[in-house]
Amino acid sequence: MTIKVLYIEDNDQNYYLVNFILNAKGYAVVRAHDGREGIGMATKEMPDLILLDIQLPVMDGYATARELKKIPHVGMIPIVALTSYAMAGDREKALAAGCSGYIEKPINPKTFSDQIARFIPADSSRGAGG
User: Fold this and answer.
1) pTM of the model
2) Total tally of structural domains belonging to the chain
3) Are 80 and 103 in contact, with CB atoms under 8 Å apart?
4) Is the pLDDT of residue 53 over 90?
């Protein structure tokens, strides 16, 4: 079984890079373009991991993370903030909103899949990515 990642990202270039890297490692990536859409997709798709941009239209990543954590079953899915917000306190703000991790953009294509693999629950299918 393939590991499914929901990537909530409004920027096409960021999405294409992450999708390319993760597809090459055997992950299945589904995309939402804003926080509200991401919440709906998370409940429908039940991914193994959620990658979440912070600067999103409609509902920012902090509000999205807080809402996701309130939903039964979805609230158990690890959320990793994937953002260009890199000011003092941004990591802490993301973690306080419910994110399990925080990765700054631009990502390093050589290490990215290893960075997110540590957030994938042990009971997920490990057939992809390691």
Assistant:
1) 0.93
2) 1
3) yes
4) yes
